[in-house]
Recover the amino acids of this structure.
């Protein structure tokens, strides 16, 4: 079984641990996916463009931003690989960038995942039952994933 | 002016603003504004002599923008914003919401002295990089910079270019300005901060462990002299406003002192500074001044002014509320700078006493300063465009600004307008 675990850099260890408690992952191939969200950066550029005469972001500032984002994504992947190694399970960590919910659905299709596992909210935050108990990303993945979804809450 | 001339002037105005909003082929806004102004001359809505007189008459605003933009860019190149944001992070003790508070206060201070554009254009990217390095979700902090830039624009006359444009038409001394707007400004800030905490409450639970470094500046002395220059500039603004000296001269003197000080310690980077200045505002403003005079001559703003005077005569909350909300909506439909010019012209045309003009101008400032928080990415038309794009499945993170803005702006604007009205009753 190929299991896609969606990580956001907060609570990777907990996600693996909770998935393990529910599923027998010894025979599975794990894909730990981190989507570096491009949304905040493009929102930043959009807001900039709204100011009359605004010059483009100076090259050094743009480089700083990209370097910070890259360092963060690399750290998340490094942690995922470390957790995977410590768990003794088989699999790999994947990094893509884009809109998280769309990339998760796309990758689940491309890699023919049998199951997608993710937290109901960002940062693995627990929410009381009710209409807001499923966050935006999880909601989209539930609606669009081409395979079963295990929602952790 | 004949009916045909008036209609032509109005048509030109609407067409120019539409082009400014759409910006086909990313042509700079100033090109359209100057083109529209030329059209006003050609249809005879404004005489060339009158156009020249308006532009030369706005020398104080032009000098102010020049000084303010250069000082802000020089501060950015001396890593003033990077260092101060680093200090804000160190003072937060690893807590997300305390970092938000510190950045909100820092953004307010930068806006008050260097205007909202400095916060929106120069502080935001610095803060973005900082929080990503700290492993925090960037949205709450980047959004805070965008929103505080507008929310803090009422603190001082120099905190927003729109203030300068309105005060040029309806002058106020510093005590008259602060007496009317300080309390509403603080109320708007408090409501906006509370709104940000509410909207981002889930993201703010994430703290940060790594001790943030303040970021070593290439030129520690450049940083020190620039910070000193900015303090001097702030003092100069207060003294200049108190003595009723033209703020344009103060801003230009402040910027010159900062540049000279940077040159003295060998930290001056003129090209880098010039590349960070929003030069496009100068032709845009020159064109807009002529365009607004065109519709003024066509009788549009005097008509609005007469309507406004009737609202004033009816007394109560109606006039300030109508003015503030109208200016806010206008600032979102078109840009807030042209809206400031139109609203100021309307207020000046309203038959009323000078102190009533000042009261109305204060309400206009609430609208044009706070209003852009509804649609940070520019205008309602941009938002509609983004909505269309989303239906095609494209990345439209800008829409999130509308969600947050729609939640934050109405209570902040209404609370500020109510406070302004209460202050005026005293």
């Amino acid at each position: 079984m190929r299991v896609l675990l969606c990580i956001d850099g907060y609570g990777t260890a907990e996600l693996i641990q909770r998935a393990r408690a529910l599923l027998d992952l010894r025979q599975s191939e794990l894909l730990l996916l981190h989507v570096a969200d491009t949304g905040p950066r493009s929102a930043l550029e959009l807001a900039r463009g709204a100011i009359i005469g605004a010059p483009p972001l100076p090259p050094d500032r743009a480089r700083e931003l990209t370097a910070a984002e890259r360092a963060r994504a690399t750290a998340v992947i490094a942690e995922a690989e470390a957790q995977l190694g410590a768990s003794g399970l088989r699999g790999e960590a994947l990094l893509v960038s884009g809109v998280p919910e769309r990339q998760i659905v796309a990758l689940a299709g491309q890699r023919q995942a049998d199951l997608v596992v993710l937290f109901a909210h960002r940062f693995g935050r627990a929410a009381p039952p009710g209409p807001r108990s499923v966050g935006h990303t999880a909601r989209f993945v539930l609606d669009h994933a081409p395979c079963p979804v295990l929602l952790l809450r | 002016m004949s009916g045909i001339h008036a209609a032509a002037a109005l048509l030109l105005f609407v067409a120019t603003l539409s082009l400014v909003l759409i910006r086909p082929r990313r042509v700079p806004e100033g090109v359209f504004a100057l083109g529209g102004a030329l059209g006003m001359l050609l249809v005879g809505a404004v005489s060339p002599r009158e156009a020249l007189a308006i532009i030369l008459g706005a020398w104080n605003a032009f000098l102010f923008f020049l000084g303010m933009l250069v000082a802000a860019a020089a501060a950015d190149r001396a890593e003033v914003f990077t260092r101060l944001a680093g200090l804000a992070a160190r003072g937060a003790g690893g807590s997300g919401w305390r970092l938000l508070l510190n950045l909100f206060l820092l953004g307010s201070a930068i806006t008050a002295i260097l205007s909202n554009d400095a916060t929106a254009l120069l502080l935001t990217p610095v803060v973005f990089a900082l929080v990503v390095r700290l492993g925090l979700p960037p949205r709450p902090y980047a959004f805070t910079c965008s929103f505080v830039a507008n929310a803090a624009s009422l603190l001082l006359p120099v905190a927003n270019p729109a203030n300068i444009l309105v005060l040029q038409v309806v002058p106020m001394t510093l005590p008259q300005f602060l007496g009317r707007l300080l309390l509403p400004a603080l109320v708007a800030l408090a409501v906006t901060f509370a709104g940000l905490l509410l909207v981002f409450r889930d993201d703010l639970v994430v703290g940060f462990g790594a001790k943030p470094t303040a970021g070593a500046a290439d030129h520690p002395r450049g940083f020190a002299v620039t910070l000193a220059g900015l303090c001097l500039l702030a003092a100069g603004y207060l003294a200049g406003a108190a003595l009723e000296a033209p703020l344009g001269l103060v801003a230009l003197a402040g910027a010159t002192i900062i540049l000279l000080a940077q040159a003295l310690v060998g930290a001056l980077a003129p090209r880098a500074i010039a590349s960070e200045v929003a030069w496009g505002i100068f032709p845009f403003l020159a064109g807009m001044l002529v365009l607004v005079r065109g519709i003024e001559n066509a009788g549009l703003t005097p008509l609005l002014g007469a309507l406004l005077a009737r609202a004033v005569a009816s007394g109560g909350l109606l006039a300030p509320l109508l003015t503030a909300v109208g200016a806010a909506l206008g600032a979102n439909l078109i840009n807030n700078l042209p809206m400031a010019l139109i609203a100021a012209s309307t207020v000046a045309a309203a038959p009323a006493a000078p102190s009533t003009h000042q009261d109305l101008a204060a309400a206009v400032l609430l609208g044009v300063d706070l209003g852009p928080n509804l649609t940070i990415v520019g205008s309602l038309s941009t938002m509609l465009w983004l909505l269309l794009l989303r239906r095609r499945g494209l990345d439209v993170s800008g829409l999130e600004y509308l969600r947050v803005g729609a939640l934050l702006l109405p209570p902040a604007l209404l609370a500020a307008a109510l406070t302004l009205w209460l202050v005026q009753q005293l």
Notes: Residues 59-87 of chain A form the longest helix (29 residues). Chain A is about 45% helix and 20% strand.
